[in-house]
């Protein structure tokens, strides 16, 4: 089990760490910590900061992922280990205390922190939470349903630097003075702030989402704060600013067409009518997908493709349409693809052939029927199209120089091949398709052409052109 860290520098602590190798001091907020490492991080590059067993046996496996652009400026990040537990009395320490600095650092894009943990004997693994403690005395817990647990590691999102420690309980409810871990522990209309239930504040008080703050403010570290050019997740645009499109409002904001002003998005897409910010589909409501960081409803006839551009826009080719849409030549408008090719009659978006209906192949990210006269070759153009060379024709077809059209239909003759030996007697392998040999003194006296290699002589005074004797 992960060792519980008690006491300050000296005494028991001295027996836990080799203090001659790294320093130990009492950090601001009167919490003893043990220095582990410092890592310079460039704003535009981000960083992955990992702790090895040599650097700290207790924090080994800890990893902090900072996205490019998440920091306001280049910054040297410090990592320390706390030497006394920070979990409240109703929780048991289930891992070390990780202390990141400098204090007060915030991210415009959430970072992801992974820490080691070990559930104490007698505790319920389903009670695992992360307790967070700020230097100004504020504290709260990240509930279990917001954690990703893999083996003996737990991962979660963070929006700034503070102290973190895994904690667990034996399943008993919180008893310490009506405290709370999450909002669901509180009566209706109240929220959990600093471990206590209280009403939301719009005057610089505690908050759980931007909608609880006045317009022009956003919720950072559970406190309503003015939105500024570097305030983080709003992309530098104040809520309430004038706009003509969502692009004017920055990440996690949208343009309200009724007021032509930027409005905050909300996680459930409800309080302000805007779509919800997200990182994966699981952050969105059922039936929605996470696209470009915003929860979007899939088009009524779009199945699971999650397209974000309305079908019906004019087009001349598929290239004029968004991903997972096609240009309907009958109407010259973009139409949604569907995996089963059903509701809109268009081919389905796909990644492999298994994403498509039986008899279809995945070509260029779209389910396509194999050519009607080409069997299973996956051709996308009808045999008979005009051509000047084999390059103008689909796979397993060739350009007939006598008709200037693509030929080589598998179901109109023999099957596909790699060599003449793959074909029936009297046939040759040409462009991957078995073809009848020619009546040029060849083997069968039939009506086809004799295959050849360019630069080699053909019988009967014929010349090798495009792989056939003519």
Protein model, in words:
The protein is mainly β and 470 residues long. Among the domains are: 12-177, Sandwich (Chondroitinase Ac, Chain A, domain 3), CATH 2.60.220; 200-297, no CATH class; 413-469, no CATH class. Helices cover 1% and strands 30% of the residues. It is built from one helix and 31 strands. The strands form eleven sheets. Strands 1, 2, 5, 6, 7, 9, 10 and 13 form an eight-stranded antiparallel β-sheet that branches. β1 and β2 (31-41) form a beta hairpin. It starts with 11 loop residues before the first helix and ends with a strand.
Helix count equals 1
> What's the average pLDDT?
66
Identify low-pLDDT runs: 1-29, 173-179, 228-238, 266-274, 298-310, 338-346, 370-383, 409-414, 439-447
CATH architecture of the domain at 12-177: Sandwich
Q: What CATH first level of the domain at 12-177 would be assigned? A: Mainly Beta
The structure class reads: mainly beta
Distance between the termini: 81 Å
Describe the oligomeric state of these chains in a short phrase. single chain
Basic shape: elongated
Count every beta strand, where a strand is a DSSP E run of 2 or more residues. Answer: 31
**What's the helical proportion of residues?**
under 10%
Share of residues in strands: 25-35%
Q: Quick one: biggest sheet?
A: 8 strands, antiparallel
Rg value: 33 Å
- From the 3D structure, determine the CATH topology of the domain at 12-177: Chondroitinase Ac, Chain A, domain 3
């Amino acid at each position: 089990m992960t060792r519980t860290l008690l006491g300050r520098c000296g005494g028991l602590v001295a027996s836990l760490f080799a203090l001659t190798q790294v320093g130990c001091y009492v950090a601001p907020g009167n919490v003893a910590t043990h220095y582990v490492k410092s890592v310079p991080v460039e704003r535009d590059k981000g960083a992955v900061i990992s702790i090895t067993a040599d650097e700290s046996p207790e924090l080994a496996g800890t990893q902090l992922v900072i996205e490019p652009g998440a920091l306001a400026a280049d910054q040297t990040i410090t990592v320390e280990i706390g030497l006394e537990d920070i979990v409240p009395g109703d929780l048991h320490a289930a891992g070390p205390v990780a202390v990141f600095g400098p204090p007060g650092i915030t991210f415009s894009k959430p970072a992801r922190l992974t820490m080691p943990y070990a559930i104490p004997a007698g505790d319920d693994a389903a009670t695992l939470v992360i307790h967070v403690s700020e230097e100004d005395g504020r504290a709260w817990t990240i509930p279990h349903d917001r954690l990703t647990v893999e083996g003996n590691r737990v991962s979660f999102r963070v929006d700034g630097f503070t102290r973190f420690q895994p904690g667990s309980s034996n399943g008993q409810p919180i008893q310490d003075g009506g405290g709370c871990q999450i909002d669901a522990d509180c009566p209706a209309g109240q929220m959990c702030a600093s471990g206590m239930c209280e009403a939301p504040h719009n005057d610089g008080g505690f908050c759980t989402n931007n909608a609880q703050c006045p317009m022009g403010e956003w919720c950072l570290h559970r406190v309503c704060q003015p939105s500024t050019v570097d305030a983080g997740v709003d992309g530098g645009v104040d809520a309430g600013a004038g706009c003509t499109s969502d692009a004017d409002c920055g990440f996690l904001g949208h343009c309200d067409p009724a007021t032509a002003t930027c409005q905050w998005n909300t996680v459930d897409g409800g309080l302000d009518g805007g779509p919800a910010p997200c990182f994966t589909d699981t952050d969105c409501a059922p039936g929605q997908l996470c696209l470009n960081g915003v929860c979007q409803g899939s088009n009524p006839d779009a199945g699971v493709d999650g397209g974000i551009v309305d079908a019906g826009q004019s087009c001349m080719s598929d290239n004029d349409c968004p991903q997972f849409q096609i240009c309907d030549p009958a109407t010259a408008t973009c139409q949604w693809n569907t995996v089963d090719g059903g509701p809109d009659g268009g081919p389905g978006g796909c990644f492999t052939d298994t994403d498509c209906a039986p008899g279809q192949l995945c070509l260029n990210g779209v389910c396509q029927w194999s050519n009607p006269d080409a069997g299973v070759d996956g051709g996308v153009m009808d045999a008979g199209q005009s051509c000047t060379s084999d390059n103008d024709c689909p796979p397993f077809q060739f350009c007939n120089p006598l008709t200037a059209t693509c030929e080589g239909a598998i179901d109109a003759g023999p099957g596909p091949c790699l060599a003449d030996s793959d074909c029936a007697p009297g046939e040759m392998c040409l462009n991957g398709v078995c073809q009848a040999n020619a009546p040029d003194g060849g083997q069968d006296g039939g009506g086809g052409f004799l295959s050849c290699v360019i630069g080699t002589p053909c019988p009967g005074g014929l010349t090798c052109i495009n792989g056939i004797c003519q």
